[in-house]
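Summary of Year 1 activities. Much of the first year was spent building the evaluation harness for sequence design. The harness presents a backbone, in tokenized form, and records the residue chosen at every position. We chose the following record to illustrate the format because it has been used consistently in internal testing since the harness was completed.
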């Protein structure tokens, strides 16, 4: 049956993180993004969230580029085509290069709407069977090792299943060694956000002695060649993040041996359909995957949770609970991680309601477009 799309409402939100989040590329304290609401002619609503940052330091997309691409390019495509299933969205949008985060936000809203129309959860619509998912936490660069140690202690008390630490040149081996001394058995991984090159091989080999679960994206943000060379010399698995924009990239990276683990971010790969394909391919290849995060608010987190219900999301993802970043989230109930476990919602669609009061409170703009 056709999905009778009627209109799209774009809500621009501005929310303040509880505390600054520092990575090798910069510090974030405020998040701006769009909630994409698709409405059908029966009055059902589906929601998606854009995940690009205001500044193009993670990928080239930004909050503004997301908005422009959605309004100027993606909505016009939807006006011209009838949809029967959300898997049809990706091939329509694929005619346009890049802009995966813009595409994913719209596609995600259509997936939610589709699942609601069917009366099934988004996880079920995607083929996910897990009833709960294990989650880890991503900790930004701290001012002192002492502060980092107490952040880790607190996260372990909250039950998070693995600790991801951001590193950058000058704030790496020494700190991780100290952390390892304090927490000899904790599953710890490091994320460099492309801050190193093969010239740093001796330093990267020192990281190799720290029994890390994996090292995430140590080298250049589009690279898969040097990562293969590096992986050859390390026993610690490399996990690619920034270098992966599609199933094509994953196939090449696995063929070259650049990555033994894949971080799937729905926005980075252009949506849930492509995420599913990457998941299925990695499963066949025996490559474990986990779901990355983009400091999303509740709608984005809900999509990550639904995706993580697929079988090969073996490793804990970055989908920490709402209270990790927000005083108040925009969904009801908020995402709760208890002992590092989040229950996968079973009600239709993403399984969380919009907290309309919070939405209004954080909204700085609202635009409606007819389909
Ligand atoms: O959403 C989360 O909790 C994970 C945050 C996180 O680690 C990241 C978000 C966005 C860009 C990076 O800094 C980083 C990552 O690379 O995974
Ligand atoms: Mg990363």
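For this record, the design step produced the sequence shown next.
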């Amino acid at each position: 049956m056709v999905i009778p799309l009627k209109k799209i409402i774009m809500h621009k939100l501005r929310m303040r993180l509880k505390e600054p989040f520092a990575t090798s590329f910069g510090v974030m304290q405020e998040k701006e993004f769009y909630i994409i609401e698709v409405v059908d002619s029966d009055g059902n609503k589906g929601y998606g969230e854009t995940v690009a940052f205001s500044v193009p330091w993670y990928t080239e997309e930004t909050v503004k580029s997301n908005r422009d691409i959605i309004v100027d390019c993606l909505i016009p495509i939807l006006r011209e085509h009838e949809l029967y299933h959300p898997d049809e969205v990706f091939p329509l949008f694929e005619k346009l290069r890049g802009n995966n985060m813009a595409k994913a936000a719209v596609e995600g809203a259509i997936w939610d709407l589709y699942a609601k129309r069917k009366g099934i959860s988004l996880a079920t619509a995607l083929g996910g069977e897990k009833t709960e998912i294990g989650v880890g936490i991503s900790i930004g660069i701290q001012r002192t090792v002492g502060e980092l140690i107490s952040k880790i202690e607190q996260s372990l008390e909250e039950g998070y299943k693995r600790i991801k630490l951001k590193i950058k040149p000058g704030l790496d081996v020494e700190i991780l060694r100290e952390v390892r001394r304090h927490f000899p058995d904790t599953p710890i991984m490091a994320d460099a956000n492309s801050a190193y090159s093969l010239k740093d091989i001796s330093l990267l080999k020192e990281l190799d002695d720290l029994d890390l679960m994996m090292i995430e994206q140590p080298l250049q943000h589009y690279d898969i060649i040097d990562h293969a060379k590096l992986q050859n010399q390390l026993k610690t698995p490399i996990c690619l993040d920034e270098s992966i924009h599609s199933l094509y990239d994953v196939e090449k990276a696995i063929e070259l041996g650049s990555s033994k683990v894949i971080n799937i971010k729905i926005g980075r790969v252009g949506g849930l359909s492509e995420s599913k394909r990457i998941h299925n391919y990695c499963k066949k290849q025996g490559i474990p995957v986990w779901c990355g995060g983009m400091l999303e608010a509740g709608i984005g987190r809900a999509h990550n949770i639904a995706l993580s219900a697929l079988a090969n999301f073996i490793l804990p993802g970055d989908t920490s609970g709402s209270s990790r970043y927000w005083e108040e989230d925009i969904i009801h109930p908020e995402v709760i991680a208890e002992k590092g476990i989040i229950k996968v919602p079973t009600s239709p669609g993403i399984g969380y309601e919009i907290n309309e009061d919070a939405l209004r409170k954080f909204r700085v703009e609202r635009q409606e477009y007819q389909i």
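The two ends are 17 Å apart (CA to CA). Quantitative recovery figures across the full test set are reported in Table 2.
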